[in-house]
Specification:
The protein is of the alpha/beta class. It has five helices and seven strands.
């Protein structure tokens, strides 16, 4: 089977392919395990919607998909993980890495989580680091005046 580089599911083989990592072959995972779709908007912002699970088997494909989006330098990206059924420690590690890389690249990113995952992120403080929750009016004002 010939591999096709794509941002979404390859219909012929049911695999997801992302941008290769430093000359290595791209990470691929069966589409019923993990896949993503990219939406672009007129203002240049992106929404990347993930489906399935992010675990040890799919974490590199997840990271590659995020890095590919960041590498395109849109003004902002919303990584929508609300349809993710499982997120293990390797996925959480890659979320932190993605947030740091986006910051270094100057791309504004936000993460949308499923409610069950969001509560864990709030309890651990990761929701503030990863900006997973909407900011209140008070928090927005505070951030504006901190500059």
């Amino acid at each position: 089977m010939e591999a096709i580089m794509s941002e979404t599911t390859d219909d012929s083989g049911g695999f997801v392919f992302a941008v290769p990592r430093r000359g290595r072959p791209p990470a691929s995972v069966a589409a019923d395990v993990f896949r993503h779709d990219v939406e672009t908007h007129e203002d240049g912002s992106w929404i990347v919607v993930f489906h399935g699970r992010i675990d040890m088997a799919s974490a590199l494909a997840f990271r590659d998909a995020c890095f590919s989006a960041i590498g395109s330098h849109p003004p902002s990206i919303l990584f929508d993980l609300s349809r993710i059924q499982t997120l293990d420690s390797s996925g959480i590690s890659h979320l932190v890495t993605v947030a740091r890389v986006a910051g270094l690249a100057g791309v504004k990113v936000r993460f949308k989580m499923a409610d069950a995952v969001e509560s864990v992120f709030e309890d651990t403080g990761l929701s503030e680091l990863l900006e997973t929750r909407p900011l209140s009016g008070h928090e927005i004002a505070r951030k504006l005046f901190e500059r």
